[in-house]
Write a structure and sequence with these properties.
The chain is α+β, with helices and mostly antiparallel strands. It folds into two domains: 80 residues, no CATH class; 82 residues, no CATH class. Helix content is 51%, strand content 19%. It has four helices and six strands. The strands form two sheets. Strands 1-2-3 form a three-stranded antiparallel β-sheet, with helices on one face. Strands 4-5-6 form a three-stranded antiparallel β-sheet, with no helix packed on it. Strand 5 and strand 6 form a beta hairpin. Helix 1 packs across helix 2. The radius of gyration is 31 Å and the shape is elongated. The structure holds zinc ion. The site of zinc ion has 8 residues, from loops.
């Protein structure tokens, strides 16, 4: 009884595996990219035996890779530990309007950049919706519909914020 069961399962798995392998083979044959990849894999496999790469050499490469990963991780960690003081400077009143923003590390520029810079409503501190494409730019509060005149563009505001930090006006 048990043997019969095992035999039946064996046949079933054999059939599934057969269909699977055929599907993979067909897929490789139908896609030139995959057959190229297949040839590359074969070539690497053959090379391993040709150059007699030992398991030790593979292990050394793996260990070196892990050490390298660890070092990169440590460097990243130390960067976050010594975060500059200006990161606390996230709000200021400039030209009678409160502006709020966040800092984000930019991998591309390798420095912190200002993101989500927004003027706030004087009444309820809700970030204003900016209409800064017109000649007279203004901000409107989505909550209380109060509008205020926006005298500085976001681009100018960013420059002022960065200048404030450089001049040490704000570095608490
Ligand atoms: Zn408001």
């Amino acid at each position: 009884m048990e043997e019969k069961k095992i035999a039946r399962y064996g046949a079933l798995w054999g059939a599934i595996l057969g269909v699977f392998m055929t599907a993979i083979y067909d897929l490789i044959k139908s896609k030139p990219f995959l057959s190229t990849l297949w040839r590359v894999i074969n070539w690497i496999w053959d090379s391993i035996f040709m150059y007699q790469v030992t398991i030790w050499q593979i292990l050394i490469v793996v260990i070196l890779f892990l050490i390298f990963k660890r070092i990169v991780f440590e460097i990243k960690l130390s960067e976050t530990k010594d975060s500059p003081v200006f990161l606390d400077y996230k709000e200021d009143i400039i030209n009678d309007t409160t502006w709020r923003w966040e800092w984000k590390w930019s991998v591309f520029e390798k420095s912190y950049i200002i993101v989500n810079l927004e003027p706030l409503c004087k009444e309820c501190e809700t970030p204003l919706k900016l209409y800064d494409f017109s000649i007279n730019p203004y901000g409107e509060c989505p909550r209380c519909d109060k509008t205020i005149k926006i005298t500085k563009t976001k681009e100018k505001m960013e420059r002022i914020i960065i200048d404030n930090i450089k001049k040490g006006v704000k570095n608490k």
